Amino acid sequence: MSQTEPHPARGFLFDPNRCTGCAACELACSTENALGWGRSWRQVVSVNPERRPGIPSFHLSLACNHCDDAPCVRQCPSRAISRVSATDVVLIDADACIGCRYCSWVCPYDAPRFDEERSVMGKCTACHHRLLEGDSPACVEACPTAALDFGPLAGGTSLPGFPDTPAAPRIRFAPLRAETHRLESTWTIPESALRSFAASRPPRPAGISLKTEAPLWLFTLGGAGLVAWVLAAALGDVTVEPLRFLAGALATLGVSTLHLGRKLRAWRAVWNLSGSRLSREVAAYGTFLATGFAAAWLFPDSAVAMGAAGGAGLAALFLMDRVYDPVRRTAARPVHSADVVLVGPFLAAVLLRWPLAFGTLAAVKLVLYLRRKAREGSPREWPAWALAAGRVLVGLALPALLWWMGSDGVWILVFAAVGEAVDRGELYHGLEIPTPRAAAARVTATGNGSPTGGGWS
Amino acid sequence: MALFHTACPRNCYSTCTLTVEVEDGTLRRVLPHAGNRATVEGPCLKGLSYVERVASPHRILHPLRRGEDGSFHPVAWDVALDEIVRQLVRVRDTFGPQAVLYYAASGTKGLLNQVGSAFWRLFGGYTGTYGDLCWPAGLEATRLTLGENKHNAPWDLPNARLIVFWGKNPAETNIHQMPFVEEALGRGARLVVVDPRRTETAERAELLVQPRPGTDGALALAIAHVLFREGWLDEDFLRTHVAGHEDYAEQVSDCTPEWAEEVSGVPASYVERLAEMIGTVRPVTLSAGYGMQRFANSGQTMRAMIALLALTGTIGRPGAGWQFANLQSAIFDDVKDPLAFYPPAEPDGIARISLSTARLGTDMLRTTDPPLKLAWVERGNPIPQNPETPTVVEAFRRLDFRVVVEQFMTDTAREADIVLPAKTLFEQSDVIGAYWHPYVQLRQKALDPPGEVKPESEIYRLLASRLGMPPDEVDRLIPGPVDEEIDAWLERRLAPFPELSLERLRSGPVVAPGHEEVAFATAVFPTPSGRIEIRSNEAARRWGVDPLPTWEEPVEASSRTGRDAGPYPLYFMTPNTKNRIHSQFGNLRMIRTQDPEPVLSLSPVDALAREIRDGDRVRVFNDRGALEVRCRLDFGIRAGCVSLVNGWWKSDGGAVNLLSAGRETDMGYGAAFHENRVDVERVEA
Questions:
Q1: Inter-chain CB proximity B605 and A189 less than 8 Å
Q2: pTM > 0.80: yes or no
Q3: pLDDT tens-digit map of A118-167
Q4: Residues sharing a CB contact under 8 Å with residue B517, sequence separation 6 or more, in sequence order
Q5: Among B176, B278, B389, B628, fewest CB within 10 Å belongs to which?
Q6: Distance between CA atoms of residues B346 and B250, nearest Å
Q7: Can you give B571-593 as a three-state secondary structure string?
Q8: Cβ contact (<8 Å) for A193 and B31?
């Protein structure tokens, strides 16, 4: 909070009692910012749209909250997002944005959107251009019930369904009257019917999946493979051929730029080492590639040089995993069986033919994998079953079996790599961008809808 | 860049005043206008979507003719008009002018709409329609009971201590009423909603009364019973201003809350509680919606509801009264009496035949003297919107020739032989009233019509000259195409009202002459007795109903299955949505993003009994038709009721009137097309 400033910061002021969820704000945003009919930087999020008894049904009109401690500003690798002094709002510089979408991962409010036409990110500017003229944002002007305002921050900082984060969002809420004044109905749904449909409707998918992130899936697997190769060279009699390594390095770098909206600006990805996980990952991976290539080319026989490169590689893998922290479904369980920090050493153990290291890492990965499956509940659909069984059999059991049978062939590596690729795919499949929609869905999911079921205080 | 003040002419309570920004002949933005106290915060999402509507790539910009293969092709105006004239003359010469159906609906309000009937009168007569799909039962019930359809100004609502929204969901249908509700609640007012659905409006209420559809009249009778029993009456008011309350006491003596519970499913204790609120809190504003009065019993139901306010004397005071329709701005027409909807056959020696709007399809098919051969449709989309869509389609297809004036290829336009491009509200000036707030407004021209679009007045003049109509008569009735001629025509209509002039209206809305902020404050009730008539002999004489309010099962309930589960055990509710005005706006991308497909709301109780899950595709059906849509579980809707908003087109797969019946309400010539029973089953994927 910026209480030390002479004037309190300005932001959106929202009254959930007045909002009827009409979406006029979305349309006004669309027109004002010429986003194209049907597209908007603002979204109306509904809590309890299915109208479960005992829980109020209401709406939140949300856009960018121009947070005091904005994760997008901190995490933007190209420093394209900043607070402008003229209006004190957070803006994206379209000329500096590389279109990596990382701001949409780290924003708890689902504010930044990829602009398909310009291939950069866009988001609510609080109608910066109107603020400069002394006008209010278009959504505020258009709200037919005066539920939305923009001005000096005053009011509550929380509302059920609004994501609770340390970003210090510049939005304030009027207290929801329905929290204290409960609606009484002359007809109530019988408990039996309520129990039969206990599960809440899942929130809309939030634009992240293996399909959308396939380039990153390839990039991280390839990166882990290169690190494994260098580690094996440092610790055993494996040779890193400089040209092949260079080819691999260029391939991974190339594939990593595929998900950028503006590939020619990829160099800007390292612009924010002090703040952005993404910048650190790119820089660390670049360092690894440079040291790895230098070691392979200039000091092919030096275990020390290869070891240094391997260390840089492990550091890069560690930082690579950190990039995904904001979109892991549960932040409390930060280790995934397909984290590259495990994949790299595991593949290195295979390359090195070190049964003990292989066995230990395989056991760790198996435990993590099975624990995750247990948490997710038994997969009901057979393809999920088959995939899980296949991942364990092909990726862990089969290499172990071949090894035990004395095979020394390349197949052990191939099977292990296939298993890792599947597991890594599951990681991407399981990512979730935290959104207000998901937060709103949790309001009804935690109170199971029963008037006596708790969850809604 | 230029700014224009104008007004939204949709069939909507709010009738917003708008400021529009025009740049290079393009509508850039639609903005609020502070001159209208009722809509000061600005238009709803539909108003904002006009930027797309006027410029939509799907808009019809040229006359279209249906080809042999059924597809439509642009043709020159001359070709289209010559073809229409050839057909008109052939039909008139062979069958008489009454073989032409002129069908106009509520798509756009404006005084210039009158040029249509003026033209068809010059044509030699025509077949028209009487009645209305929207509100006649409630209008007539109000007129019979209070003498006039008017209510307190919208901004008076915060003075109420108790607000009862009976079958009204203003959060979706009259969003500009919600700030006044909020202000009232902020001042400590209490809010009750009566609706089988837990609506957006109900979220603000302390009590939601969820009766079985069609039983609101029984609830109102039982509340009256309690008022009499407890003596929660305003004796002074009754003595001086009310007629028939003694008889009414007798009439409702058996209508106990227990009886109402049996009929409506609302527990007697809640009937008592609602009665106590209405009986003891002052002042009370009772605001009734239109959907509830589209039942066969609904005129009597509405009279029973108004009677509650008469008994408690809560009429004619700030924060009090009956809110149904505020026709104080309807100074140009006779909408106040339903007989105005029923043009006499030969008012000026020119024979006109009238068909029932409620039974449009059936009546079109039934007409034989002469049989209908040609239809002209403007400002309406009767195929999905009139009751019994399958019959309406059949009746249109049986005609020789159809002309539809439209902005978009609606279900009705798709049936046409010739489609003529229609103007939007921004492309010709007109003057409009409202039915919630008291303003008269100028719907000011802000854009030239795009493409080859011509306003109806111009189309009619072109037809008139081709048909050889007397030029001086045409000039008198139909203004010429130039803006000045339109303005002059409007000025002539405004002339009787010194308070109104185009000059004055150009800068913003003007409160209608003679407006009462608090309706009936002088306690003048223009009924036959000069009192509020709980007992109305006129009602009995005109409509053959009991002179006192009564309740009967609606037709669909009693004639088909009563309260028992029969072949069609579910009540099919077809309310309006915030996203459309009837069948308008839903085709725009801005609106489609909000509301992508028709969805049936279903109680988990009914879903469980039919092995339906959330999101399943379901078939909604009865013996009139069927729809296949996705379903969504709604934990707030009363079990036994399903709901699908009306206004989806047939081509969207969601036209609710495929399932409705064409029948009239007990009074006013309204359409009783909200009482429909259906069943629902899961569609196997």
A1: yes
A2: yes
A3: 999 999 999 999 999 999 999 999 999 999 999 999 999 999 999 989 99
A4: B152, B153, B156
A5: B628
A6: 44
A7: EEECCCCCCCECCECCCCHHHHH
A8: no
